[in-house]
C-alpha cells in the first residue's frame, strides 16, 4: 500500500480539477476526540471517476461533506480549479456549490410535492435560468436517463431506481465540474444498482464531470477509473 500525496500525478496525466492537501477533521465524543481525517491528501483529474471505499465509520461521508463545503475541515487545503475553497465565506461557498458541485446521496432527497421534471429543473431556476430553458434542459436529461414517460410523476409514483435516476439528473443538470456521490446506489437491489451506476457513469463522461463516489460495492468500485481506500484517516492506493 502506498499513501497518495498531494504531488502524486493524477490519472491519465490530464488537468487537475481538485487538489486536497493535509486535510484534518476531529469530532468530540464522550470517550474523547475522534480524529477522523488525519492528513488526507489526493488529486482528482478533470472528468476522472474516483471510487472511495473504506470500513464503516472510517470517515467517507465526513470527507464528502468537507469536499462539498457542507462542513469545514479543522485544517488543510482544497483547491478546486485553483481556488482555495475551504477558506471562502459561507456565502461564497453556497455560490460555488450551486455553480460547480453536484451531490447524489443514498436516499434521493427529491421534493415530494414536485414532479420529476420540476425537481430536475429547480437547480437551474435557482441559477436564474428562464423556466422554459430550465424545463427543456431537465427534460433532455430525463430522456437521456430513460425517464421521458415519468416527467410528470411525483417521487411517490416512481420506483426506487427511477427516483435515483431523477436524483442523478438533478445533480448533473447544472453541468457541475465535480459530482460527489455518497453510496448513490446503496438503497437499490444489485441489478437496479448496476443499471443506475452505468447511466451515472455514462452521463458524467458526457458532461465531463469528475466524480468522487463513496461505495461499499467493490464490484462498482472496480468499474471506476481509480480506487482509493480511506484507512486510519488517510487515502491510500493498494
Ligand atoms: N457531527 C459529528 N459529530 C460527532 N461524530 C461524528 C459526526 N459526524 C460523524 N461522526 C463520527 O465520525 C465517524 C465517521 O463517520 P462517517 O459517517 O464519515 O463514516 P463513513 O465511513 O461514511 O461510515 P459508513 O460507511 O458507515 O457510512 C463515525 O464514528 C461517526 O460517528
UniProtKB/TrEMBL annotation:
Residues 18-238 form the ABC transporter domain. One of its GO terms (cellular component) is membrane protein complex. One of its GO terms (molecular function) is ATP binding. CDD domains: ABC_MJ0796_LolCDE_FtsE (cd03255). PROSITE patterns: ABC_TRANSPORTER_1 (PS00211), ABC_TRANSPORTER_2 (PS50893). InterPro entries: AAA+_ATPase, ABC_transporter-like_ATP-bd, ABC_transporter-like_CS, ABC_transpr_LolD-like, MacB-like_ATP-bd, P-loop_NTPase. Keywords: ATP-binding, Nucleotide-binding, Transport. Belongs to the ABC transporter superfamily. Macrolide exporter (TC 3.A.1.122) family. This is ABC transporter. It comes from Mariprofundus ferrooxydans PV-1.
Amino acid at each position: 500500500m502506498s499513501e497518495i500525496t498531494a504531488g502524486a500525478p493524477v490519472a491519465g496525466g490530464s488537468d487537475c480539477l481538485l487538489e486536497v492537501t493535509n486535510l484534518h477533521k476531529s469530532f468530540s465524543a464522550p470517550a474523547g476526540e475522534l480524529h477522523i481525517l488525519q492528513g488526507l491528501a489526493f488529486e482528482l483529474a478533470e472528468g476522472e471517476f474516483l471510487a472511495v471505499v473504506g470500513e464503516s465509520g472510517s470517515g467517507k461521508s465526513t470527507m464528502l461533506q468537507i469536499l462539498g463545503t457542507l462542513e469545514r475541515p479543522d485544517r488543510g487545503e482544497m483547491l478546486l480549479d485553483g481556488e482555495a475553497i475551504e477558506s471562502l465565506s459561507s456565502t461564497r461557498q453556497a455560490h460555488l456549490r450551486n455553480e460547480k458541485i453536484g451531490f447524489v446521496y443514498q436516499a434521493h432527497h427529491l421534493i415530494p410535492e414536485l414532479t420529476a421534471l420540476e425537481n430536475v429543473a429547480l437547480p437551474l431556476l435557482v441559477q436564474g435560468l428562464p423556466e422554459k430553458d430550465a424545463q427543456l434542459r431537465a427534460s433532455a436529461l430525463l430522456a437521456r436517463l430513460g425517464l421521458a414517460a415519468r416527467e410528470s410523476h411525483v417521487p411517490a409514483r416512481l420506483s426506487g431506481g427511477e427516483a435515483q435516476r431523477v436524483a442523478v439528473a438533478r445533480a448533473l443538470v447544472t453541468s457541475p465540474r465535480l459530482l460527489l456521490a455518497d453510496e448513490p446506489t446503496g438503497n437499490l437491489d444489485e441489478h437496479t444498482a448496476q443499471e443506475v451506476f452505468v447511466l451515472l457513469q455514462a452521463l458524467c463522461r458526457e458532461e465531463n464531470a469528475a466524480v468522487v463516489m463513496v461505495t461499499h460495492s467493490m464490484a462498482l468500485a472496480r468499474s471506476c477509473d481509480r480506487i482509493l481506500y480511506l484507512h486510519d484517516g488517510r487515502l491510500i492506493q493498494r
